[in-house]
Amino acid sequence: MSALEMFWAAPPIARTLAASAFVLSISVYTSIIPFYWVLFHVSRFMVLPPELWRIFTSFLITGKDLGIIFDTYFLYTYGSKLETASPRFTEPGDFFMYIVFVCATILGLNIFVTGGMVFTSALVLAFAYTSCQDDRGQKATFFIVTIPAQWIPYAMLLMTFVMAGPEAAKVQGTGLIAAHLHDFLTRLWPTFGGGRNLVPTPAFVKRMWQTTEATVAGRTYGTAFTPAQRTESTSSGVPAGGVLPESWRNRGSGHRLGGD
Q1: Beta partners for residue 140, in sequence order
Q2: CB neighbours (10 Å) of residue 74?
Q3: Omega before 49 cis (within 30°)?
Q4: Across the chain, where does the E strand assignment appear?
Q5: Rounded CA separation 68/56 (Å)
Q6: Burial class of 91 by CB neighbour count within 10 A (0 to 12, 13 to 18, 19+)
Q7: How many angstroms separate the CA atoms of 2 and 142, rounded?
Q8: Rounded Cα gap, residues 216 and 228, in angstroms
Q9: What pLDDT does 254 receive?
Q10: Region Disordered: what ranges (predicted)?
Q11: Which of 71, 85, 92 is nearest to 17 (CA)?
């Protein structure tokens, strides 16, 4: 299998995030793209036209030097694990909505609390926190140290604090808050609080991520079979949610009482 075939075989969201982060970061650190064009700053939304791309690019700038490799690696590793193997995201569009919620929370916290302008490390930490919650009770290796899996995000945050300082750790910590808030609203509150999932996946998002082919994927908790998801219409053009109940539609053509 060639490198290009391996790339297209990878989970679509994770591969897109990792490839975008790698290419954009290389372009920024080699001065092909000016750094100030990709940073998030509220004032740049007050100009005409507003520089809306900064919302996305601020989540795709890795650290310098080896940070380009490590941040891209963690972004892809944890992202692909959540996209393909997490029991939290079993419906089409669930992982996409998770990213939207987490990014929106990180953005809000940094606007009103930290004043940060680059949020890639926060997104990586959010992925790591959610992924490691699925592995709770297991052991994991962080560089050369073996620790409980659920401690990995905190070890990453501590390393950032030691190597980059408290301000960088504060920005990265917003990812931990965002991921924990998502976990609370979608799992803890419905399970233990008797409520409902407060971050549901809208129907139009599910339709965006529907697949027309059946797939079988191995997951840590078993084998997931995804049947082909078709549009809600029959070959005759009658909507699936028509007047008659579904169970009546396969009863034959029918005959008039008293007829031949």
Answers
A1: 147
A2: 21
A3: yes
A4: 139-142, 145-148, 215-219, 222-226
A5: 17
A6: middle
A7: 30
A8: 11
A9: 53
A10: 228-260
A11: 71
The one-letter code for the residue type at 41 is: H
Q: What is the pTM of this model?
A: 0.80
CB 117 within 8 A of CB 93: no
- Residue the block writes with tokens 């490390």: 121
In the chain, what are the domains?
Answer: 9-208 (1.20.1540.10)
- The pLDDT assigned to 232 comes to 43
Q: What is the pLDDT along the chain (260 residues), one digit of tens a residue?
A: 677 888 888 999 999 999 999 999 999 999 999 999 999 999 888 888 899 999 999 999 999 989 999 999 999 999 999 999 999 998 999 999 999 999 999 999 999 998 899 999 999 999 999 999 888 888 888 878 888 988 999 999 999 999 999 999 999 999 999 999 999 999 999 988 888 999 999 999 999 888 655 455 555 555 555 555 544 433 344 444 444 444 444 445 555 555 55
Q: What φ, ψ does residue 87 adopt, rounded to 5°? A: -70, -10
- Phi first, then psi, for residue 253 (nearest 5°) are -75, -25
Rg (CA), the chain: 23
Q: How far apart are the first and last CA of the chain?
A: 65
Backbone angles phi, psi at 200, to 5 degrees: -75, 160
Burial grade of 98 (CB within 10 A; 0-12, 13-18, 19 or more): buried
DSSP type of residue 185: I
Q: Which two tokens stand for residue 71?
A: 């941040």
Predicted local confidence at residue 135, as pLDDT: 86
Strand partners, 226: 215
Spatial CA neighbour of 153 closest among 134, 174, 125, 178: 125
